[in-house]
Specification:
The chain is an alpha/beta fold. Helix content is 47%, strand content 9%. A hairpin with a 3-residue loop joins β9 and β10.
Length: 594
């Protein structure tokens, strides 16, 4: 690099309104104001980094002072435009509020604005990162903004407008700069590459545009770094090497291997990435993004998304939407948990193998549905069977028996794990006379647990379930308001079944399920359910694998799970003790009279 070398983003800084990329609402308004002679005394430019806020401020400074303007555009040839571009004009002052945030600096500014400009029509003060000013500094700036001299123009720029006092905002014309679209960034990068004489692959520019996340400055910096790495030849592999990510083609190869259940090929790709020094968290992030992009291409009706993501259409045509949703959720959960595990590589490989082994589940002869892991905001659950026979009501008191594999003791008519402070109710809302309790824990995937789930499924209310799915975001908000910890656990679960009295939630991991059934968390969730649904509801949490196994084992069957079909002596009674004996057997139920 030569002695006078400038960074690419400085070399390609916009010098006119026409050069500003992706902000037509800003350029149109400012050019109209200049042409009509209605330029305000103060502007507030808000928006993400790298979207052109400071560049627009400098173009505005040139436009209001240019000696030979071309319409509303500065000529960029006269002495005034040249001096502003080079930063040597004393009447255009750029202030970094992050390092000059005190009241003393603003007082000095307030004193200077009273003097007439030295050689321009208007003095221009560009205050960058203005939200960093102290409250005292804002107070000192307020009077100047309210009644500024006619020869003064203020441009305040910030990435965090919510931190600016309303008294300051109300005295400015506010412009919100938007994230620049990937297409606009890619087009700009193509112009830069052509002018710089760099060779580039089409895919590589799209990849840079995606990584930049709407910031053109970030995109130019990444392009410059990649060009230096590749010696003027920019490829997708080079972009992956520079950013620490995974090459887009390799990501598509992994997704294809998972879809075809090629476990060996998928593990080999992961091994290659580890040997190349890739971080497990970054790999998961990139794979989730690839699955999301494939899903977007699959759902897109036109060709726009295919152009933005070349090479994705063929794979999108192969993969099913439930499988893609399952992958996004499974790997998204893995991404969240990677920070808590000692061996992130192992966690990633397990998640990938689970996705490769995914199969759709058929329940009750219905059309295939995704496994419980495949979901959107609230994963859809298998619908209840059309037949709704009269069966013993499963009360909240015996729901804890369905917690397979937890080693919990089921307690009927009292308190116990997952049912603390939740006394059972009869149809009349009164406590039953007997308090039977189960003497030994329920472990494994037992027939009794399947029986409870079967009876819950027979009592399923699809109308209530659909209503809760529609109000799921509202439920999350209610729970977060009551108890943020319960909200954190709840949003990792899936609604899989619902009856008149019970909402059944499935969780991927045992700690999540156990946390939801703790007294404080469970009470907060049930309070939120009651508020959102307008009726008292209780929660049953179980492992997602148990639910999937139950669905698989009851696929299309009409078998009775009541144990001894010939013994019907207690099945139609509403007495809680009799139902407990019927469900769990006489040998494990002890009836005590309190």
């Amino acid at each position: 690099m030569g002695e006078g070398y400038q960074a690419l983003y400085r070399t390609w800084r916009p010098q006119s309104f026409a050069d500003l990329v992706g902000q037509p609402h800003v350029t149109q308004t400012l050019t109209n104001a200049i042409q009509l002679g209605q330029v305000a005394h103060a502007y507030l430019f808000c928006g993400p980094r790298g979207t052109g806020k400071t560049s627009a401020a400098k173009v505005l400074a040139k436009a209001v002072n240019c000696l030979s303007p071309i319409g509303a555009e500065p000529c960029n040839v006269c002495a005034v435009c040249q001096s502003i571009r080079e930063g040597t004009n004393v009447d255009v002052e750029e202030i970094d509020a992050a390092s000059n945030r005190g009241v003393d600096e603003i007082r000095q500014l307030r004193d200077k604005v009273q003097y007439a400009p030295a050689n321009l029509k208007r003095k221009v003060y560009i205050v960058d990162e203005v939200h960093m000013l102290t409250p005292e500094a804002f107070n000192a700036l307020l009077k100047t903004l309210e009644e500024p001299p006619a020869h003064t123009l203020f441009v305040l720029a910030t990435t965090e407008p919510h931190k600016i006092p309303a008294t300051i905002v109300s005295r400015c014309q506010r412009f919100d700069f938007r994230r620049i679209s990937p297409r606009d960034i890619r087009d700009r990068l193509g112009v830069v590459c052509k002018d710089e004489g760099w060779r580039c692959e089409e895919d590589s520019l799209w990849r840079i545009a995606d990584i930049a996340d709407g910031g053109l400055r970030d995109a130019l910096g990444l392009l410059e770094q990649t060009a230096a790495y590749g010696g003027g030849h920019i490829t997708t592999e080079d972009v992956a090497q520079v950013t620490g990510g995974v090459d887009a083609r390799a990501l598509l190869s992994l997704v294809e291997a998972l879809w075809r259940k090629d476990l060996q090929g998928a593990l080999q790709l992961l091994l290659d990435w580890y040997m190349a020094g890739k971080d497990a968290a970054r790999v998961v992030h990139d794979v989730v993004e690839a699955l999301r992009d494939i899903l977007v291409v699959k759902l897109s009706k036109g060709n726009e998304e295919e152009v933005l993501r070349p090479g994705y259409r063929e794979l999108a045509d192969q993969c099913e939407i439930p499988w893609l949703l399952t992958g996004v959720q499974k790997l998204g959960e893995t991404y969240v948990h990677l920070r808590f595990v000692d061996q992130p590589r192992l966690a990633l490989e397990i998640a990938v193998l689970e996705l490769a082994s995914w199969e759709p589940i058929r329940v009750g002869g219905l059309a295939p549905v995704a496994s419980a892991a495949a979901a959107s905001a609230v994963p859809a659950a298998p619908a209840a069977p059309a037949r709704l026979r009269k069966t013993p009501v499963v009360t909240p008191a015996n729901l804890s028996t369905a917690q397979a594999g937890t080693g919990e003791t089921a307690v009927v008519g009292g308190t116990g794990p997952g049912l603390e402070n939740s006394p059972p109710k009869t149809k009349q809302g009164l406590s039953p006379p007997a308090q039977p309790s189960v003497a030994r824990p329920m472990t494994g995937v037992s027939g009794r647990k399947k029986q409870v789930l079967k009876e819950l499924q027979d009592q399923a209310n699809p109308v209530l379930m659909g209503l809760l799915q529609q109000r799921w975001e509202q439920l999350l908000g209610e729970v977060q308001r009551v108890r943020s910890q319960a909200y954190g656990w709840l949003k990792t679960g899936s609604l899989v079944l619902m009856t008149e009295d019970v909402a059944v939630l499935a969780f991927a991991f045992q700690p999540q399920r156990n946390a939801v059934m703790k007294p404080a968390e469970r009470a907060a969730i049930e309070q939120g359910l009651s508020t959102v649904m307008g009726r008292p509801l209780q929660v049953l949490a179980l492992l997602r694998t148990d639910w999937e196994q139950f669905c698989a084992e009851t696929d299309g069957t009409e078998k009775s799970l009541t144990g001894n079909p010939g013994n019907e002596e207690n099945t139609n009674t509403d007495d809680l003790a009799s139902r407990a004996i019927h469900l769990f057997g006489r040998e494990v139920v002890e009836v005590r009279e309190d």
